[in-house]
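Preliminary data (for renewal application), thymidine-5'-diphosphate complex.
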Amino acid sequence: MKAMAKSTNAFTCTACGASHKKWAGRCDACGAWNTIVEEAPLSQGPGRGLGAAKGRAVPLSTLLTTEAPPPRHLSGMDELDRVLGGGLVPGSAVLIGGDPGIGKSTLLLQGAAAFARRGLNAVYISGEEASAQVRMRAQRLGLADAPVRLGAETNLRDILTTLDNERPDLAIIDSVQTLWSDQVEAAPGSVAQVRAAAHELVTFAKRKGVAIFLVGHVTKEGQIAGPRVVEHMVDTVIYFEGERGHQFRILRSVKNRFGPADEIGVFEMTGAGLAEVANPSALFLSERGQPVPGSAVFAGIEGTRPVLTEVQALVAPSTLASPRRTVVGLDSGRVSTILAVLEARCGIPFAGLDVFLNVAGGMRVNEPAADLAIAGALLSAREDSALPPEAVLFGEISLSGALRPVAQAENRLKEAQKLGFSQAILPDSQKVEGAGGMSVRRIADLTGFAGEVFGAG
Ligand code: TYD
Ligand code: MG
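Predicted structure:
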């Protein structure tokens, strides 16, 4: 094997973080255009290479521990505490990503105030807004009396010195893209700066036991601007999402070293800041009126919590050679697969038809368990026949058209019953231990579903 070459990778793609040896217009790794930027390579002086000098032996230990799990701090904002994995872990680093204007600063100001009112020493450093602006927002949100300490700064070295002097329990850095370090020769917001700032702050968090929240804006492609590398550095990655036109905001953990990922917290943006939504199912279903064709209620699980959502479909004759497939809030690959299974296994064609699919309320659903509800909405729209309004659906569809069981059926049924539904349509093979008062309608495969429920196929 060839000896390891000295690293000459000095170009990085800002979209995917891939390293390249030379500049190119298009990144081979992710296919994005004009995202590759030059970065100063790591200095490799003599003695830095492997084997040149002997390292220190690191003491190794067993997996046994007598230590209790780290104590957690609760903010009292249940939706936030749940997404953090059951409260904030001291010394942890949390990245909160989201589109500009979605409400990240509002959320973290409210969060900081909640923690501070419970006795934590909280510091909020804004690099985007002047202190006066943040104070005005705090006043509008009724938080002016919370003992949060506020600073406006973008210089990384000054921020670290301040935090080192103050030793708060938690620090909020809004945003990581505004920070700059004088040790890095690159503009603020560049990959190199974001990476260096995040690295310094995360290291500081671990060493000094200060929990750090980093705010990160998301690019058009949906990634935290600049490098994905920040996501690898932190303990917890949370996205704050929502449609600009809707008031609902969903906080979703996509990675958490201290708790389950895919946990969601639901908020509503009001004139007085973000209000917690304790019962999201009621919120997502509130727009339902009379039974309409094309609507199916999915009994889903988000993280540890059951959530009902409404899948809506519209199917209309198309004038286009390749008809439209517009999907919002669902995985479009999954939808294509279900359409193909309906065509190939059930003989129900969608050729020549435009298909629009949507999850009501700006929610996003990624569970394969939603397959049956998607198929239900599609068939209901195509056959112009409403599903029973008292029914919820769940089940995964395999490529053969068979229905497969999903996890946590009981929790799904319990939530559906709580919200006034009385029937569940689910896979034949699904084990259900106690359906409560729900009547269960079992379906073996997609052909059976189309025939029994819609008389189609
Ligand atoms: P902000 O927290 O500044 O977003 P981000 O930090 O993610 O860029 O939120 C900005 C939006 O929220 C802004 O368009 C106004 C709206 N908003 C309200 O509707 N109510 C409020 O009480 C506050 C503070 C903001
Ligand atoms: Mg902001």
